[in-house]
């Protein structure tokens, strides 16, 4: 008991002593001197050891093992602050030291500052001296104890700390994270480390926050826990919140022994701006980032179980993968799978800019719209397989192949099969290119070597690709792009029905340029490659062989040959011949040469030329003369240039190629272009161009010349002149321009001489250049006084100036006067400011003067008033000032005065318009309303026409209408937008009379046209012709605000007059034509198509005159003397005008027109063709047939006719060798066959000319066979062939004799020569040419007497015909039997039709002396009489001469009846009916 009490007493004493000692120490250190002593003591011990300045304000020992140090300051060896703490306190559990456990129960560090730095990354930190001072002297490593001391630090609290770290030599990067510099303020930490044993680690961070000043990074909160269990470290909670981002680690573990690990981390919000603090290339990203990651493995093996990355709402990437050994990255097995990648193009562009900040969006990338991708790759970097599928809006790409790469990805190679199916490539490369619908199947190989450029090779097939809608199929391609050599080599092969070609090329732009191209184009469809509206299925064939090489573009040497070229389509074939291009170089002199030879252009360029520098050298040569206008090249140009060469080119006739390519011009005569460029010696340029004749449509430009000269002394000078030849005259213009001393002068001379105007004058304009205060160019334009003689009047141009500045044009006192009267004036300022205005004013300015410039002489009138425009260079504000055109008149009528009042509407931002044409008290035309200009306000225009005379239109259509009368009335409203107007209203024609000039047909119209926003319609419009016959017209025109118009026209005609110009024999077609039927036409912007079915129902007659060609012959033996020569300054305009062939200026522009018609022709239509108006050769025919006519504006010829026309009757007028014009009757059954081209029309016509001739002239034997040898003879003419080549055959026919006589005649006239001679004799003399040994042989020696007898007979015909009525036909015959007028036989044939053609009488009466021929009677009389009782009963009587071999009596008489009626009995046959026929 005593012992226990002792122990308690001793323990109590110890406790009391300890407590007392703490109280003593607490009380002792409560005194300031003691605290200072303790601090000084400690500093005294540390300063010598650290060799630096230190300070401690106080040291306090509190109760229960707590120590507090205040005002602790430590300098580094550069006498800069290393560490300062206002308060540092700690509490130590001393008793735990007995258990080998260092337990710091709390640590407090308040308001502290620490500055750590080192000068360079290799230098020590500024606190290294402290480490060195306390480093143990024994550096031998000791083995750790088996039972190391346990350490725990609990309740760690750091507050209001400032930390600064710098590597002085490294640059600052404000706003960006920099590991060499950071400055932290407001550093606060609450943590607890219950165990620092790595095998039993227990650490928790309850809160960590700070602000980093240099980057703007603010860590709001960091919470974490870390535990260990043996060799395994793990954590299930790490939360980080900084700025606008957050991160959470929900599961993380790592085993120090097995190296197994796993990590599960996610973020629901990462602001790219926060990430950009650490990686500044993310600065441009502006969408939130989210990700989830699940990683696991056993190092060095690692596996990405799932990695999902999201950027904004449109991008998601999911990645899975595994690597067997990252330490052997280059050789280990790797697998990567991207099962899902979905990305917008906008996001893709953001990611591209991470690596390429200056990347700008391109349309090709934007066309992909949304991108989807899947990928699988497996293997090692030395060899892996890859399969990928890329889905985009245009289509899908598939790749399946293998790849290789080294560990640093410096050498990469990928090869495999690339496929696509109907890839809408047009969306990628641009729809304007025209390529689309690509189907590809090819092997691709890509190689990238270290420090080398890529090499790409393809070999495969383009299954199909469309170009401008045309499909190209089965194109074999192989080629290589070598980035190291900057070259492309390949081959393209195609063999289909539409396209067959094989082209090879090797093109390089490396150290040595080369262009090697060769191939064969057997057939290439051009319809999609080149758009020429007139082409119909165009194709090209050619052979190409070329090789050019050199150091650069200027030194290329070689040749190119293009031959066997043929361009053809459905309408033409153009073979331009070979094209040769040759480039040569002389190695000794260095002179180079380019030669071009072809059927179109040939020329040569020789000397030292540099295409690369020619542009900058020319600008450098012009700069001294126009320094303000032409700036000095940014790239300094050498004082001595590189270009010194001559050129000479010849442009030949381009009629064929202009037609084939539908060019807007034709160079008729050879044009030359030549000159010299010398930038070496004198910086001079000389160019001369001469174009003798150039056709632009119907514009004929002659003797155009341009001369350009440039040198250092006289500056630049351009002289140009040309003649525009018109049908009624010409216009000559010359321009002389000179540029020197920062100014340009223009002298324009014009001479006009035509039916509209006669004018001469010069206009002199000079321009000076300067810079304003802001450096912008300013042009000061001076218009010098000038006089222009116009139609006998002198027009004065007053001196004036124009100042052209940036966004401002000032016109001062521009005036045109006649004598002292002002015609036109312009003055003011045109700019973008509303207060600036420019005004044009007129004073009795003749409208004729203005229109004469356009070769228009239709209207005359006087322009008065003015027009003012404010802010003319922006949205112009327009208003008029009493603007009018007075006394508007044509050649035949006075229209009135046009008043135009326009005022700007500031509220609606547009023009309020009120215009009208007034004549006396009549308001013919009124246009009023609002027109928006630069605003969205709707348009509202009313157009009213009141009894406007149609005759006013006449001057505009003189060539179309020879007469116009009637009136027009209308009420139309225009609304909507100006780009898409909405039209409603009506247009009426009252008592309209119009005579078509060419056809001379007068039509009358009175009807109303209804106009709606979508349709313009005519319903059953009646058109009447001269005969009051009608045609009915129906029209329906649909449109969308006059865009995309389509129409349907239907015409129904009933015996309608289409041609009525029988007196106009100067026209190509004249006569009278009336047709019935219908015509239907459908049209739109894509073409006009129609059909017609027409027929002739009443008598019509039409003549067509074929165009004639003539060629002058040259007679060198004829010399003209005493012929006055008239001086002609324009003689070159007329040279070879008689021998020049017609230039085809037809342009193949315009929409296609295709109309098909069926013409049913009857004998009521008599058609004629005037084959040769000079000789009178003509063909007149009427018959029947069905003709199919096709008109196709794109075909050559545009009109094609098909069908057979069978003649019933007709005449062929034939001028026989300019001796006599004979009329031949066309025999029924003759045909005209139309086979397409009208000039290829086939004729198969038999015609005859009937005469009464004595066949005894050929042989005496006929007198023994015939009592009267004078009989009817037909001179036959057979016409065969076409209009371009007609074949004529001659023959003789006896229609009224027996076959024996005919055979006898054929035996006498058997050869072609005999037929031709007898044919000529019959048609010229009315008789046969006597055969040798015949009674009339003497006649053969006196053809003149025979011909005179024939002409006398014709004269008697005319005399007797004039004495008798029109229904009598007279034919006389005067025949000389011996070549003299002593032995002649004369005959008269009469025929007539009487009593409405019921009685027909014909006679053949002749008389001759009995001594003329013993075998003939002195008088011979034959007649034939026929009388129609009715249409089936006829009485007939006759008297005819007998043939001698069959009859004894010289004549035979007879009478009888002719019955043409079907009857079963005689009574029925002669049954008459006397009832009056009903109408």
Automatic annotation (TrEMBL):
Recorded topology in the membrane: Single-pass membrane protein
Q: Where are the transmembrane segments?
A: 7-29
Q: Which InterPro entries match?
A: AsmA-related, DUF748, TamB_C
Which keywords, in A-to-Z order, does the entry hold? Answer: Membrane, Transmembrane, Transmembrane helix
Q: Which domain of life is it from?
A: Bacteria
Q: Name one GO biological process term.
A: protein secretion
Subcellular localization? Membrane
Gene Ontology CC annotation, any one: plasma membrane
Domain Translocation and assembly module TamB C-terminal span(s) in chain numbering: 1022-1438
Q: Extract the PANTHER family matched here.
A: DUF748 DOMAIN-CONTAINING PROTEIN
Q: What is this protein called?
A: Putative membrane protein
